């Protein structure tokens, strides 16, 4: 299966939501003639009811692009977690020069994909690699967002690309977190430096810097805890890690990756705002895009913050981390054909 098809099948919830939604909106035209002199049509289920669940119907239907249709498309994008501003931008761009044109569902989706890809193009950038040895990658995000899993996947990819990688298990809060990372290290074939449960993550990070430098490692990936109950504590913990690693290399960390869980929808936007205050976030990884209908939030993130999106998580296996390709993502999200 090509990666596009895999992505499309993984993003099926978002894709089917937009696909069925657009088809329902386009099919809606014939049901509501604007200046109908004829008797009112029989009562039918509300449009939004039909957007959820069943297929929108006739794929051959066409509808002239007008204000009503644009509003419906905007609502659909908002329902897919794209956010009000971004949804408005996408539909406004879709309308430009096309007002009054009769479009099929497939054409509307292709147009939508094109405008979504345009928003995402500038932020689609792989994690930059620098000549520093080790290049230090600090991974932050709330609990459960997928930090540890993403580190395991990244370690495996970098190793496959010929890099030597060391992982520091900086979430010393729970013993289980360290064990989980050790399992990932084994899978990826990468050493994992650990410290006893409850010990200071900053001193672990310092030791890891020393060991990574001694062994001539290309990359040091540092996992962190993501407890947000107490923001001041988390900020203190992260800034202490940063202070300590800068004693070894003033230019570190070279990347601070914020890992976000797509299933949290609009919450992800707040998390970016919070973590940008806690740390100097340089790029994003969005996980769990498989099996969520909230994939649109990635478009809102790109539009709102302009932070680079390095990769997306589409499953729990080691190779389920994909580079972020805006065009493929937009086509998959809208249920369009590549
Ligand atoms: N379906 C899916 N699950 C994921 C993905 N990334 C992480 N997970 C799961 O999310 C849960 C939390 O991940 P974990 O890496 O422990 O999060 P952390 O607390 O931020 O370190 C685990 O059950 C992972 O298997 C993804 O891209 N897709
Ligand atoms: Mg973890």
Defining key terms:
single chain, elongated, Four Helix Bundle (Hemerythrin (Met), subunit A), 48% helix, alpha/beta, binds guanosine-5'-diphosphate, two-stranded antiparallel ribbon, Rossmann fold, binds magnesium ion, 338 residues, 10 strands
Averaging pLDDT over every residue, what do you get?
A: 89
> What is the total tally of β strands?
10
- What is the CATH C-level name of the largest domain? Alpha Beta
Low-confidence stretches: 33-56
User: Which sequence of SSEs, written as H and E, runs from N to C?
Assistant: HHHEHHEHEHEHEHEHEHEHEEH
Overall 3D form: elongated
Which value, in Å, is the CA radius of gyration? 23 Å
Largest sheet: 8 strands, mixed
Report how far apart the termini are: 13 Å
